[in-house]
Design brief:
mainly alpha
Amino acid sequence: MSRVLTIIGALLLASVGTASAQTPSPDAIAAARTLVHTLKISDQYKALLPAILLTIKPLLIQDRPETEREFDTNAPKVAEGAYAPHFNAMVDAAATVYASNFTVEELREMEAFYRRPAGQKLLEKSPSIGPQVDQIGRDGSRKAADDLRVKLAEIMRQKAK
């Protein structure tokens, strides 16, 4: 999940410059919002709330049991309302990134793919497959660099003679 969020964050940062240059159409935003939900990006944003609560809990309770009970009782109710505007803003920003980078037709095609069984399976398997594919790239690059280093060193040694 952190890999996906990193990619989303990078897309959001990259879109800051392009978003001001062109405003996506309402149709593009609507198609992108649907895609964001289909890709389960919104679910990932929802999953951030418990982590946020865990992060701020020690700061607020400061090892006081009575405060901890109060936090545990009130945090879920308060958090939903306080988090909602940020959640909506993140979904809107992600939709804007997609709408700024793809046509309405492309967005609809992607959404259609990810709704089908193969697309759903790709979404399901991506968290486990992604790191494996990344590792293959790192291993392959390391091996290629080693081979290149050896071959270039040999060429340079022969030229130096």
